[in-house]
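[User]
If only I could read C-alpha cells as easily as an amino acid sequence. I have put the entry right below:
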Amino acid sequence: MRLFCFPYMPKQPRSQRRNNAPEETPASVRRMTKRLGEMGEAAFLAKAAFMGMEVSRPWGDSNRYDLIIDVGGRLLRVQLKSAHRVCAQPGGGYHVRASPHQRVPYGSDEIDLLVAYIVPENIWYVFPPSAFQNMKSMRLFPHRGKKISKFEKFREAWHLIPGLKQKLLKEKASRQPAP
C-alpha cells in the first residue's frame, strides 16, 4: 500500500540543468534537503502508525536520532534516511548515508535502528547499527536482476524491531471474536 506520492523528477542531463535551473545557493540546497527529509519522516510516521507503533519526535535537532518509537513499552531511537533519486555514480542504486554530516557513523550507543526509505520505489530498509558499523554510507539496489546489494536482507525487515511481531499478534488476537 502506497501511503504518499512524492513528486519525482527524472534526472536531466547536466547541461540542461545548468541552463534551466535557478542559481542554487548552499542555503537553498540545505532547505531542500531538509524538506525532503521531512517528507521521509512523514511517510515513516504513517507507516509506523499503520503498523501499530507509537511514534514521538524529540524536541530540536540536536540528537543523533530523528524519532522515538514505542513498541510494547520499549522505546527505540530511530534515525531515518530517505533517498529520492537514483545515484549518479556508475551502477546506479540509491545512496543512503549511515552517518550525519560530521561523517562519524552512527553507533549502537546513539541509535537503535536506521530506517531507510527509497521514495520512488516505496521500499523500506530496517537496519540495526551492527549492519553498517564503520560505514559512512550504503548503496541499495532494490531491483532484482541488476546489481544486488549485500543489504537486501534488511529490505522490509520490520521483524528486527524488538517486540513488534508480538504486539501485532496480540492486537490481532484481541480483535477476533470469542468462541
Notes: Confidence is low (pLDDT under 50) at residues 14-19. The chain has one domain: 27-175. The domain at 27-175 is CATH 3.40.1350.10 (Trna Endonuclease; Chain: A, domain 1).
